[in-house]
Specification:
19 helices, six-stranded antiparallel β-sheet, alpha+beta, 70 strands, 17% helix, 1223 residues
Length: 1223
Amino acid sequence: MKGLAATAGDGEVTLVWESVKNVTGYTVKYGTNKSALTQSAASNTNRTVISGLENNTTYYFQVIATNGDWTGTPSAVLSAMPLAASIPGAPSNILVEAADSALRVSWGKTKDATYYQVFYREQGTDSWNQWGGNISGTSTAITGLTNGTTYEVAVKAGNHKGVGPFSAIAFGTPDKEGFEMPALPETNRIDNSEITSIVMADPNNVNWGLCPKFNVKTDLTDNDPNTYWVANNYWYNSSITYTFASTHSVNYLLVVPYLDAAYKNRIDNYTVTLKGESGETLATYYRSGVNVTGSNYYIISFPETEGVKSITLALGEKAGGPRVSISEIAFYNSDTLPEEIANLFTDGTFTALKGSVDQETVTALTTSLNALSSYYLDPTQLRDELKLAQALLNKDSSALGLVKNDFQSRSTSAAADQAAGQSASDLQPLGVTAQAGATVAIYAELPSDATVYVVPTQFYGESGVWKGTPVALENGRNYITVQQIGSLGGRGGPLYITYSGSHPEQIKLQVRVVNNAWEMPVLELSDWYSMGESARKDAIRTYVQELSSYVAALHTSGLNTNVRNATEISTPSVLLSLPADQVLSGLKSAGSDEDAMVNAMYQNVLAWEEELFIANKVQGIIDSNATLTSYQYPMTTRQNIRYMRMFAGAFMYAAGNHIGVEYGSTSALVQGKPTSATGKGNANGLFGWGIAHEIGHNMDKLGKAEITNNIYSLALQAWDGSSMALNTRLTEDGRWETIFNKVAQGRPGSANNVFVQLGMYWQLHLAYDNAAQPLAFYNQFFKLWKSGAHSGYTYDERVALIASQVADRNLTEFFTRWGMTLSDEVKGMLNDYQTESRAIWYLNDASRTYRLNSGSAASGSATVSASANESKVTLTISHTDSDKILGYEIRRNNVVIGFTTESTYVDDLGAANNLTYTYSVVPVDKLGNLGSEAKSNEVRVAYDKTISSDLYDLSRQDGTITITMKNGASVPVTGIKVTGTGLSGSYTVKVKANAGADWTTAKTGTLSDDTVVAYFTKPGAAESDTRIWTYDAAVLEITGIPEDATVQLLDYPGDRVDFYEGATVGVLKDDYKYGDGEDDVIKAGTLVILGTYRGDPTYNYVSVEAVYNTTSEAAEANGVTTITRPMNGYGLLLAEIPADGAVSDTSDGFFIFVPDLESEKELNKQDGVTDAYPLEIRAVFYRTDDPNNAESKRVTSETLWISFPGEDDLPLIDLKSDLSELN
């Protein structure tokens, strides 16, 4: 193989190579590993397109010529990289971090991008500045900026097609390496001079790289945030003991961390040990789930303790990040004002006053608070608490904030989730949305068995930058400053809680907002299963009323980024976190009246329950015989479907813990209808393929992205409320033809087309699931897969082993047809099952429907006839029981080549020529049963191979035809074909290898009849020279062609063999001498077989195959039996010796085959042949790569079978060695 060249396309590579003479096709091997080309494709011509490739990935290709069982020498391995056809989309997940006179910028990888460009400008200016050049990675640092100035930053993605659009704008403000000291309250502060010693439990627990000059005695109490301690390792002891000159009564202290953005919120828990004058331990307190406040310090609080001489503080870190740190610590004498205010209320929720509270108490506390100049807790929030107390004292309960006690336990580690082997989101809506930087006060009464966390989120966030650091709640007062998430501006978004304990009913919260935070509509239906229809609709009605009022109060501009435009719909199966205006719009599509909207939401919740019912049944989370009427969502975590910012090219995506949906698609998420509402035979009306596709991503256990996740998509498409008999996308999109061709050819490796490969998984459902339990197969399959069954085997082998176990059938052929690789050991294990008798690799959606409708197997038989037109063979197929037939497996010379569901099939043989073919078809009925093979008549493909006119331009002027190859190319040309009426006269063909070369005469000759096929001769050869010569031609000039005649260029025609017309088999009349040697003679009376050939006598040879009768006379009534084998004998290829003596391909050779009748007689005796001569014969022409090695042979031409004449009908043949002998 030579001349392999590749042209990269979008997700594909086009390969071309030099045609190999006398082959029937080519095999293309390819892959991403040069030494392991695991994929393959077939081609009939010297051009093919390999699709389904990943852009910007290097692939390696190799081409091998084939001819039956023969394979040629592989080409050299060639590499190519598919490239996108368009510019990439906008990058997403932009993060900006401040540095000294610089900004550190990072972003997510963008599809089809090969480089990125980063731009910046001062906020408020118009002109962008590009930072650096093209950046290959996904991060950079912009330097030379002005500290304290806010900059806008955006990123573009580029590739060979150009640069895409700007990303969303992110913001950052460079800051000097030195940090400013937070303003620590002075009220009740213990002066640092009171601290007599500071001692580390482990002096080695210092990150000396970050704090090279750290001095524990001075750096933590010097009022300088630029001197700090950072722990070296999390497992080292982090305790630091501070001793005072005198004893103090204390109940809190403040810690300022290292204020670098990556470090300042790393403390998760603390342990405080308080000791007295004599070193005795007074108390030890532990708390987890702490977070830095908006004032950049931690409040380390604990019950009031008197007589404290020393305090030991140990810090624990949050998982996954830098170590804990301290840059400043401040100690305070006890202050009981916060506790006194808290003691006004009956419990930590601050929702009711104690009976002993009177006006005097409230007034006194208000006076004390107003007298404070600075305080460690936000005075605004404390004043709000006192205003609440005053309102409750006045019996005004409307002053209460959002009071909630309808939470659940949701955790990925819950027993139900662990048993299911599946998890999702543990978020529960708090019912509040807030801008970044706002403070939300949460007053809590909490269970003690697990921590309750508050989780901030970003409204319209990006896939990887939307969820903030969880904040642990404690009983009583919690002031939470809403974290800014990401770098796309302040924004903010809804707040959630998480809780994994066993007593969610003990969680009671009051949420109070003062500025830049709002209560939002929440439809809480987590108790759906315990509610009756009336109660469900009452809850929905209240929500619809609240939603309508809420949306009416929103500003109509900027709704897609307004954090107030948020709502939550909380059901057992899903949490929908969506834009409020879009939810209202979606509900109004069913009708603007309240009853219609209530019913629309009710039906929508039923649709979501049904959606997850099917998904959970597919994965075996619920049993295959579970019914929808008795179904209850089995896990605690659930799918969270959120309005999110899309990355380039997406309108929906899956990210494990959530599914993101674009703004314009969110209204459809509340318009679902269950199959009970859509009617018999109709699909669940929830959005369609998209949402099921993304749920499939989050639930996929097999990990073949865009393939195995769509098992869920197909199941939900097929679901009709009962037997799952609806057509899927594989049918609607016309995928089955490609699927059937994949399995018919059975090439190794998976299909590049994800929908084709999906067919393998879906066919297992089609083959084995019945109407009563339509998802039983995958239900059991995934139970076994998640249990680790056959975990010691490869992916292919595990799938085959588990599938065969579930089906209780040996599915070796099924998976082999699909190109999967199974070891001999695994095949042996599968042999323990009964072999599947059906061809289930040919099943489609209609097959299963037919089976469920009690369709019967086909009877009768098929017939097929074949006809050839140039390189195409058309099969015409029929069956006596056609209504029950799904299609036909097509076989060419006993090799499966395809499958058709039609009554005709066209086989394009491409490069093949001068060969005979016998086709057969095997009918496959709608149940997958294989019928009896039907064979066609033998056909011979033999034609003049013309070069496509698309490759050249043809012009005529003054009787001269000029043919010019396009784009200056040089194309191999072997001859011309002239077609007209009553052709006559002489013609000449001249060629140029390139436009600047001299003309070379390629052929001269005489026109006659209506068609002339003329092969070129060697330069300078006589007109009578029969050798074939191929020229690389850029320009051809032809003279002598009539105006009304057409001219076509001929490619190399390939070898050809034919029997000699009129005297194929006969007996020599006289001796025939064919050489100079004494023995180079065929004696008179010898039986000979004569024919013509086109080829090279050095590399070709001819044989004759024969069909002999082996039927005894007594058995002839029962039919004729035969044997087919090559005849013994020798063949001679004769050709004119040209003037220059050089032998090569000839267009007009002659062959003689001399059977060895004595050897034939002996073989016939052994084989039980009853006749002296064969019934039929055919000539077979071979070409070898090495004339001295017969092992390199391949069949290049064949004749059709012809009858052998009887002994009395053998003619006398008069052969002459020289034309002069005829005189």
